[in-house]
Amino acid sequence: MKVAEVMTPNPETLGPEATLEEAARRLLETRYGGFPVVDEEGRLLGLLQVEELLPRPENVPFSDVEALQLFGEWVDEGVLAEIYRRYQRTPVKAVMRTEVPRVHPEDPLGKALEILLTTKVRHLPVVDGKDRVVGILTRSDFLKLILGRS
């Protein structure tokens, strides 16, 4: 079976200059967990997943203390208004993943499944020969395939 048989064709994408606020709203509206980020010609530049938008616990250097970090800066967990201000002024390109695995429509489906299971990528872009995004694959697509549902 080939990637083209299971992928969602023509997925929604984001431009690199979209703000994180715009991206977060689109994620909530569509209930997707991420979007490929593309240039004007539709070529893949990166990937923005929900995980990149949320603070995450990190160890404070030279200590055993954990604190929240967002976009490489320490944040107080009670300062949601400041996080929102950062969303309003930060472009997607500042936090998107740029090292993104990708597959082609004619690739074997097993290759895509291996990538989804062995990396932190949950939304696998499918690109054509010119690196333009033509589809997307998620772990849920494989569950649907296993259950025989589309």
Put the structure in a nutshell:
The chain has 150 residues and is an alpha+beta fold.
What does this protein structure show overall?
Pfam families: CBS. Keywords: CBS domain. It comes from Thermus arciformis. This is CBS domain-containing protein. Residues 7-65, 96-150 form the CBS domain. The structure is a single chain. With 150 residues, the protein is an alpha+beta fold. The protein has one domain: CBS-domain, CATH 3.10.580.10. 29% of the residues lie in helices and 24% in strands. The chain is built from five helices and eight strands; from the N terminus they run βαββαβββααββα. The chain has helices spanning 20-30, 50-53, 80-89, 109-118, 139-147; strands at 8-9, 34-38, 44-49, 56-59, 66-70, 73-75, 123-127, 133-138. The strands form three sheets. Strands 1-8-7 form a three-stranded antiparallel sheet. The protein has a three-stranded antiparallel sheet with strand order 4-5-6. A hairpin with a 2-residue loop joins strand 5 and strand 6. Helix 1 (20-30) packs across helix 3. The longest helix has 11 residues, at 20-30. The protein is globular. The model has no long low-confidence stretch (mean pLDDT 84).
Task: Please trace the helix and strand order, writing H or E for each element.
Answer: EHEEHEEEHHEEH
Distance between the termini: 15 Å
pLDDT averaged residue by residue: 84
Annotation, overall tally of beta strands:
8
Number of helices: 5
Strand order of the largest sheet: 1-8-7
The fraction of residues assigned to DSSP E strands is 15-25%
CATH topology: CBS-domain
Number of domains: 1
Largest sheet: 3 strands, antiparallel
Domain CBS: 7-65, 96-150
Keywords: CBS domain
Organism: Thermus arciformis
Protein name: CBS domain-containing protein
